[in-house]
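User: Structure please.
Assistant: Input sequence and predicted structure:
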Amino acid sequence: MNESKIGFFRSFIYSITSFDKYRLFLRQSTGRVVAYLILLSLVLALITCASWYPMTSKVVNISEELLADVPDFKLENGKLEIYAEMPIVIDSELPVVIDTRTDVDPEKILYQYDNVILITSEKMIQKNYMQRQELSWSMYGNIEMTRDTLAEAIPLFRPMLLIIFAVIAIFFIVFFIAGKFLSALIVSLIGRAYNSARGIRLSGRNIFKISVYSMTLPLIAGTLLNILRISIPFMWVLFYVGCAVYVIGAINSIKRELDAMYAGNIDPGSFDGFGGFEGPHDFGRSGSNDFNSGGFSDSDPEESDDNIGSENNADSSGQDGES
């Protein structure tokens, strides 16, 4: 198996279940790692948007149910008339009082409530402890509306809501993906700090690769909590803690493998190769087979053998010349 080309599903599983598999991610190109982050973010963003979709139908259904209980009314020339016995009181967390009689003082009704919405023939008043807001029907100009025209307009809300939902979803997906790249950079800083503290000298590119895959499980957990509408204080802190656990676990696993491979006798170098473990330049001839067997070199084994063979031929020619 070409370990530098692990599929999305296998990478998804490895990134959650095994610190030891993170060494395989270092052998992937940066482009494949970026593609993984985009695809994972896109899938989670689409799942989140799909959880919002039922709300559009629910809004229309609730509007239709409320309309069924609304008495006949007429809004014309900035005046509201409701053809029912006044006042109409709707008890809820925020009481609604409807009284369109012209001989009733609105202030007397408002005085009876600390929080209330009052609908009169001329305006709508919302009052609470902090402030009072008024909406005059005259601001709608000469518009004319009745219960029948409102019932005809409600079905038109559905396609309008779908368009609004699609626009919001597109913006959400774009900003969601962009935000995950920013998160990956922040997690990379955590990885750089730990890498420097342990003295492993992984390159910044390889730390970024580890950081991207470390975000898999925290991203899934955060998405599920959002869908289930479960609010946890300082969730963003828990997200980075989860990522840090995977980053530290992966770096420790890589260090253990290096310690086992070189037994602490050889400086592992700057880790800038394709596999993240390219050793010093004077190490290639004496131990290239052992080094490649560890799966950490960017060089082709056949190419290495050819180079060694060329050096052997050169040495043989030199000996013949001397003799």
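The chain has two domains: 3-54+160-279, 78-141.
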